Amino acid sequence: MTHTAASKPILKLMNVGKSFHKQVVLKNIHLTVQRGEVTVILGPSGCGKSTLLRCLNGLELIDEGSIRFNELELTPKGRQWQAVRERIGMVFQSYHLFPHMKVIDNILLGPLKVQKRSKAEALAQAEELLERIGLLDKRDSYPRELSGGQQQRIAIVRALCMNPEVMLFDEVTAALDPEMVKEVLEVMLQLAREGMTMIIVTHEMGFARAVADRIVFMDKGSIIEQGNPKSFFSEPQTDRAKRFLQQFY
Ligand code: ADP
Ligand code: MG
């Protein structure tokens, strides 16, 4: 989670804007993410957090500005998005596992069908990842046979098995029963410790504080404050951030 000032950012957003019909949802977004850095995005419902993540892996196209991913310049009309989507993994609030497929087949789908990797090699990686989160014994189960927390951990493994360079997490514990939240956050903390570059949207403030290298606070489509977690949580600079934090304490 450390980096020198000279290191090249893995992601750089410059003046990114996005509207749906006539509603401006993102405006003047400038954001730089270093390799290995954990960025947590906070902000009230509807402020554009999900849209921002979706723009980062091409699920939504930006209208304005540009996004640089490593050396790739992604302009609004650029065609490089398919390649990017494979290298930036995303996990959502609802797990999106295919119900008719076993856990292992859910995980192998991308590596085999999209990345055209060999079955033996992908399988070995999938099993190693399952082992690491303690779910190797669920390899041949169907999603409905698993708890919500287990399904979400499988969804994380499924994204990791594509060997992404960045992982995006959009409120991945919001739909879980409280007792399952911890096991999912634990997996994410572990990933952060291993040096994964992560951008996380969450309403778990304790977790945000523990995992983040940087907090980005959004309101009404703009980033209005960013800084290290210690100063953000103890001395938020804007009234909007203060009001936002008050609802949690
Ligand atoms: P957040 O994740 O912070 O709650 P979102 O990014 O989901 O916010 O939404 C930001 C705004 O964009 C909201 O007003 C939402 O209604 C609108 N929005 C999101 N997705 C779409 C879409 N596909 N079409 C139209 N409006 C959308
Ligand atoms: Mg959202």
TrEMBL record:
Belongs to the ABC transporter superfamily. This is Amino acid ABC transporter ATP-binding protein. It comes from Paenibacillus agilis. Residues 112-139 form a coiled coil. One of its GO terms (molecular function) is ATP binding. Residues 11-245 form the ABC transporter domain. InterPro entries: AAA+_ATPase (IPR003593), ABC_ATPase_HisP-typ (IPR030679), ABC_transporter-like_ATP-bd (IPR003439), ABC_transporter-like_CS (IPR017871), MetN_ABC_transporter-like (IPR050086), P-loop_NTPase (IPR027417). Keywords: ATP-binding, Coiled coil, Nucleotide-binding, Transport. It comes from the Bacteria. The keyword Lipid biosynthesis does not apply.
